[in-house]
Design a protein that fits this description.
Layout: H1 6-9, E1 14-17, E2 23-26, H2 32-35, H3 38-46, E3 50-54, H4 59-66, E4 71-72, E5 82-85, H5 91-95, E6 102-103, H6 110-113, H7 115-129, E7 140-143, H8 147-156, E8 161-165, E9 175-177, E10 189-193, E11 200-201, E12 204-217, E13 220-225, E14 229-232, H9 247-250, H10 254-257, E15 277-279, H11 280-289, H12 294-323, E16 332-340, E17 346-352, H13 362-379, E18 381-382, H14 405-425, E19 430-434, H15 439-442, H16 444-453, H17 456-469, H18 476-496, H19 504-515, E20 525-526, H20 533-561, H21 574-583, H22 586-600, H23 604-607, H24 620-626, E21 649-657, E22 667-675, E23 685-686
Parallel strand pairs: 3-4, 3-5, 5-6, 20-23
Antiparallel strand pairs: 1-2, 2-18, 7-10, 8-9, 8-10, 11-12, 12-13, 12-14, 12-16, 13-19, 14-15, 16-17, 21-22
Helix pairs in contact: 7-12, 14-17, 17-22, 18-20, 18-21, 18-22, 19-20
């Protein structure tokens, strides 16, 4: 990419990404579909951006891209920024992608979008994690393979069942039956228990089409668009068996009901609650007026979406590792069809591979144009001429071959998180529903899966930084466990390093401060300055080990004294945290502990605030100041190094807080932490040797 001038910085509709904010990313606006603004087109034209559409037709996608300055190339051309296709991609096509090129499907997405595979994946999760935890689809059988099981279930409940081809869309081939004899067994089909108590509006059955965007499966990132469509049947619902063959009553697909003589369309885009297609917002407003808890309902729908994607995550993530050369090559927009029953429980009907983007009504254009524009902004098209295949400016610098494996993994983790934050900043009307603060406990399985499929060092980097990206609560016991593990890493480094990056006086200073808050006395001996450095480190390592032992005993006593850990249900899953503690590096633990201190505005859980009559009491201001600082051992080489003196230890910390709250802006804080030894410390004996 050629260098970017000051004029480039002033381009409209451009965001700047990457470590040094030197990579231009195009921002889209829905108004371009009708305005055809020259200024909006100028960016795409300046960089010669290109797209191709393969095996599908989408006037909306083509219109938005062309009006943003893209030009269309032949389906066989390899010089494109976006390939928009209606089918799955062959592995050889995926392997050939450049880092700036994007395609709108992940490999093996059929694990979600084929009805039989979706059901089997959810069934596997039900067996592994409990039926009730993944009870998001009606009882289902794949025929003819499971015909005997189906017959046994049918004999116990002779209600209606719905038949669906395993790989179809738009309501094609779907019908209801009331007897197994009505079911053909010469092809693979799905038979599901029919939900006979659907929630009705004005007597009509409806379902909801939701637009779900996934930008990564490794790790999983899920966004839900803020608006969707409620699609109504055209005949009032009646569960009598005599009406079982009336598709206009039982099916809600637009492609089916638009053929009905009773279908009502609306020509006013500002009227969202009239006819057979409403906006999701209008539907929710109606339900609220009827006294329904729509907040609970949407929470359950988000839960359903996340669980469905988790069920297929391992298959798709594995395929991405095998076939996709760059993490940012793929994104996918899914159409989730959800039915709500009379008890306000949502049921997943199916997941559509390429949801319809047809705009047969003004409401369609209003919702879908905004959604596609926001999606293109979020996924981030780098402004690069596809004919100029040169390294991006952020790729220049140290050759990756010169980096050790740990550095590479840390760089990969930081790149993932920077990308997630940049996506979040460009999200528009999309809401990130995974990960969020609540997902730590709700979906701990996802983090266990992550630990199984990625190297442990990368897992630890991700977990420590995810504390900042989607901060969970960390219990006091977990915080003390992390601090003890951190101290143990320091102890090992004291023994291992002959050329330590820290002076022994720092450890002495810490032990004076920390031991004064232990419940039992600890005898400390300051090693003589006449000893060689390695001997002084050995003595301090032994004393630090004694402190860790006493500290762990007090943590154990804390656990035993508590009937229940406060806010345990809001804390990170204990199994995941234990895995993290065992594998984490010193810097990983430091990130988590710094976050805990900043979040709670106190480090007293680490150092304590105990003062008895034998100790001089500090003022509250002294307590507040001293309890903030406990990372006094080591400044990593990539951070600011300063000479230590006896009065202060200064460490400059950069804390990029990537919050996932929907209405908050990311915060970038830069703070200088200063450690001042307390005036009233426990005396340390001087070792004469």
């Amino acid at each position: 990419i050629r260098s970017h001038t000051c004029c480039d910085r002033k381009l409209p509709c451009v965001a700047w990404s990457g470590v040094s904010k030197r990579i231009p990313v195009l921002l889209f606006c829905a108004e371009a579909i009708v305005s055809k603004d020259v200024a909006i087109r100028s960016v795409g034209e300046k960089y010669n951006l290109a797209f191709k559409i393969v095996r599908t037709e989408s006037r909306l996608v083509r219109g938005i891209l062309v009006n943003h300055g893209f030009h269309e190339v032949h389906p066989n051309s390899n010089d494109f920024n976006l390939m928009w296709t209606g089918s799955h991609l062959k592995p050889y096509l995926l392997r050939s992608l450049q880092d700036f090129q994007k395609v709108n499907h992940f490999p093996r997405s059929f694990e979600l979008t084929r009805k039989d595979r979706l059901y089997k994946n959810i069934q596997r999760m039900q067996q592994t994690h409990g039926f009730q935890n993944f009870h998001i689809v009606p009882q289902t059988f794949v025929l003819p393979a499971e015909y005997q099981e189906f017959s046994s279930s049918f004999s116990k409940d002779k209600g209606a069942w719905i038949i669906k081809p395993v790989a179809s869309s738009r309501g094609r081939g779907i019908y209801l039956v009331s007897s197994p004899s009505q079911i053909p067994l010469d092809e693979n089909i799905l038979v599901s228990r029919y939900i006979s108590n659907p929630l009705l509006i004005d007597g009509f059955k409806f379902d909801v089409r939701l637009y779900v965007l996934v930008t990564s499966y490794d790790p999983l990132l899920i966004y839900l668009y803020e608006e969707g469509l409620a699609r109504f049947a055209t005949v009032k619902y009646d569960h009598a068996t005599a009406n079982i063959k009336n598709q206009f009553m039982h099916l809600t697909n637009y492609s089916v009901n638009k053929k009905s003589s009773d279908y009502v369309s609306c020509d006013d885009p500002e009227v969202e609650d009239y006819g057979n297609k409403w906006s999701m917002s209008a539907m929710l407003r109606y339900l609220r007026q009827e006294g329904k808890d729509t907040t609970l309902l949407m929470g359950q729908i988000e839960d359903l979406i996340v669980k469905a994607l988790l069920s297929a995550e391992i298959h798709i993530a594995t395929a991405c590792k095998m076939f996709v050369p760059h993490r940012c090559n793929c994104f996918e927009l899914y159409g989730f069809d959800v039915l709500i029953d009379s008890n306000l429980k949502p049921w997943l009907l199916e997941v559509n591979l390429s949801p319809s983007l047809a705009c047969d009504a003004p409401l369609d254009l209003k919702i879908k144009a905004s959604m596609i524009s926001d999606m293109f902004s979020l996924v981030g098209f780098v402004c690069q001429d596809p004919l100029l295949r040169q390294p991006r400016p952020d790729r220049a610098g140290i050759d990756s071959r010169m980096k050790n494996p740990t550095q590479k993994l840390q760089d990969k983790a930081l790149s993932l998180l920077r990308r997630a934050q940049e996506e979040y900043d460009r999200r528009g009307g999309f809401v990130r529903i995974f990960p969020t603060p609540d997902t730590w406990e709700l979906y701990s399985v996802a983090f266990i899966i992550l630990f199984c499929v990625v190297p442990s060092a990368l897992f630890c980097s991700l977990i420590s930084w995810l504390f900042v990206l989607v901060p969970p609560s960390c219990s006091k016991v977990q915080a003390r466990m992390a601090f003890s593990s951190y101290l143990h890493r320091v102890q090992l480094r004291l023994l291992a390093e002959s050329r330590a990056n820290m002076g022994p006086e720092l450890v002495v200073r810490f032990l004076k401060r920390a031991s004064s808050n232990l419940r039992q006395d600890m005898c400390l001996e300051e090693p003589s300055r006449l000893l060689c450095l390695s001997d002084r480190q050995r003595i301090l390592s032994h004393q630090l080990g004694n402190f860790i032992q006493l500290y762990n005993q007090e943590t154990k006593q804390m656990v035993e004294s508590l009937d229940k850990i406060p806010n345990e249900d809001r804390c990170i899953n204990s199994n995941v945290f234990q895995e993290f503690i065992l594998e984490a590096s010193e810097s990983d633990l430091e990130e988590v502990l710094m976050f805990y201190t900043q979040k709670n505005k106190s480090a007293s859980v680490f150092l304590g605030t105990k003062c008895d009559s034998s100790r001089v009491k500090r003022t509250s201001d002294e307590n507040r100041e001293s309890e903030r600082h406990f990372f006094i051992f080591y400044v990593p080489s990539h951070q600011l190094r300063m000479k230590y003196d006896t009065a202060h230890v200064i460490k400059e910390c950069f804390n990029n807080r990537w919050w996932s709250e929907r209405n908050s802006s990311p915060k970038n804080e830069k703070s200088v932490i200063i450690y001042s030894p307390p005036c009233h410390s426990k005396p340390i004996k001087q070792n004469p040797n």
